[in-house]
Amino acid sequence: MRIVVAATPEVAITSLDALLSSAHELVAVITQPDKPAGRGMELTETAVSRWAKQNSQTLHKPITEEETIEILKGIDVLITIGYGKILSRAVLDVPLKSSLNLHFSLLPRWRGAAPVQRAIEAGDSFTGVTVFELDEGMDTGPIYTVKRFALDSDISSDDLFSELALIGPEALLETLDLIASGVKPTPQKSVDATRAMKLSREEGRIDWSLSAEKISAHVRAFTSNPGAWTEFRDTKIRLES
Q1: Both 176 and 218 in a single domain?
Q2: 178 and 203 housed in the same domain
Q3: Do 123 and 217 fall within a single domain?
Q4: Distance in angstroms (rounded) separating the CA atoms of residues 152 and 169
Q5: Cut 0.85: pTM above it
Q6: Which of 28, 142, 151, 196 lies in the 20 to 30 Å Cα band around 124?
Q7: For residue 57, what are the domain limits?
Q8: DSSP-derived secondary structure for 156-169
Q9: What is the pLDDT of residues 18-63, one digit of tens each?
Q10: How far apart are CA 164 and CA 150, in angstroms?
Q11: Cis before residue 226, ω within 30 degrees of 0?
């Protein structure tokens, strides 16, 4: 099938590698435009942008919905992985077969922007990846494929992102096989849904009144983003797992 991937973060690269080496045709890669970053606020490209250039792949950084629609004309499947934009129905309907998302949780648990951190913060025993068909809701579309992953008691969000990035490609390739076979996805049960709200810098502050177990989960969940921290004598101290 003819595939376009819309992605931004480093964790998408294992899936891009798998698609590139598969029997499917990776027609193009879409990512976010370069943005100012760092102390010098220099324009910086995304990890996916670098990957596309290194692998000589057609790369797009669309600004408008009309640009995105034009890119998707004639493709079979759109796959999004942490793209960072909510796509309209007009965009989702362009691919001939489906528009998919690879989400790093066991949907409907942890719908939203920070599923990896929220799973660790909550002390979940299991998480995983879900490939589902995009609709206009926030991670509410019907599910094709789920892969579970058991959480060790000392795992950090950085480690978990790496682990889930390894099982994501298998879930995507299985889903593409299902679509080619005419299999329909299964609707989610919204009654079981939980929200993985976007992280804030203030959330990283450690509440020392919590149990040692909860403080450990807090530090492991927020170690890199937004950063776990506390204050001592008016000095901010960052903690890492």
Answers
A1: no
A2: no
A3: no
A4: 22
A5: yes
A6: 142
A7: 2-192
A8: -HHHHHHHHHHHHH
A9: 999 999 999 999 999 998 887 777 899 999 999 999 999 999 999 9
A10: 11
A11: yes
